[in-house]
Each structure stands twice: as structure tokens, then as C-alpha cells.
């Protein structure tokens, strides 16, 4: 994770929780993440994985990219290439970079690089309020939604369905790069 993100993410997470009037205990119950782990993340003592952040952001009613954008503390209508930090999952090496300006608009574009052999899994709650499509730029990507497996290659695009547990995996020997386009569903 880029240093500014790593430094600011604990406070952003705690602030988002407090702003919603949610205790650590309630967040733990909603997200399925232990109180101890939430406390460690909020104190900056543990670097969260993509799956953990997705669970927490979903329980807070936020998109993961929204949480990371607040941590980046960037704003404006233009997002310059050299000013968009990437976030890396410490467990899988998955790298995620929000491409869209952090203006709170209805559409977000996210570039992801998934290393060979890596997989990231998200609970259904992480998708409960977003609609997304995934476009593979290069490499191979296997998406498992619920029990449905879809194999994608460079240039392929998929619209993800109703919220269900989802795993994105790269079983090839080369990195997979893909773009995620997401919008917020009506709540």
C-alpha cells in the first residue's frame, strides 16, 4: 500500500465508523471481522487485505474504492496519472488503483493487476449496493459468482450479476490486468 494510504486509512476507517454511529462491536457483527482485528486496523497495527476491507466497507455502506478515495484525500475533477496511488493487498499482491477523480460521481473506474496464481474473494455484502462490469485488459481471469464460473481473456467483458460471494482468480503464469467500472445501485 502506498505510504499516504497506509498512514491515513486507519483514521478514515475509524471516522467512517463513528460518523455512522456504529460501535466496533456492531461493525464486527455486521462485517464478520473480529473486534480485535478492527481495532488493530483502526490503530494502524495491521495492514488489511482486500477481502477484509471489502467486508468492512460493505458493512459501513461504502464502496471499497470510496473508502480508499477518502484515504487518498485527493479531490477535483481531474485525476492525473502520477497522482493516483495504488493499494496492494499484503496477502495476494493484488494491486488496485482508482482511476476516476474523487468527486463522488456516480461512475468509478478501477484498474487492477492480479499476480499469477492469486485470487481475491469478496462476500456478497461487498456487492449489495453496487453494479459492476469487469473488462480484461490483458491476461486471463476466472470469476466465480456463487457457483457460476466464467473464464475471461484479454478484451472480454462481464457484467456481474446479483450480489453473491465472488472470487476473481488468475491461474495463469502472467499477471492479469483488468478494469472495473462500477456504479451505485439504488438502495
How would you describe this protein?
The chain is α+β, with helices and mostly antiparallel strands and 187 residues long. It folds into two domains: 3-70, lambda repressor-like DNA-binding domains (434 Repressor (Amino-terminal Domain)); 81-184, Sandwich (Jelly Rolls). It contains five helices and ten strands, in the order αααααββββββββββ. The longest helix is centred in the N-terminal third of the chain and has 17 residues, at 3-19. The two termini are 31 Å apart.
Mean pLDDT: 86
- The assigned structural class equals alpha+beta
Radius of gyration: 16 Å
Main β sheet profile: 6 strands, antiparallel
Q: How many H/I helical runs?
A: 5
What's the helix-strand series? HHHHHEEEEEEEEEE
The CATH class of the largest domain is identified as Mainly Beta
Write out the CATH superfamily name of the largest domain.
Jelly Rolls
Assign a percent range to the helix content. 25-40%
The beta-strand count equals: 10
- Strands ordered across the widest β-sheet: 1-2-3-10-5-8
Name the CATH architecture of the largest domain. Sandwich
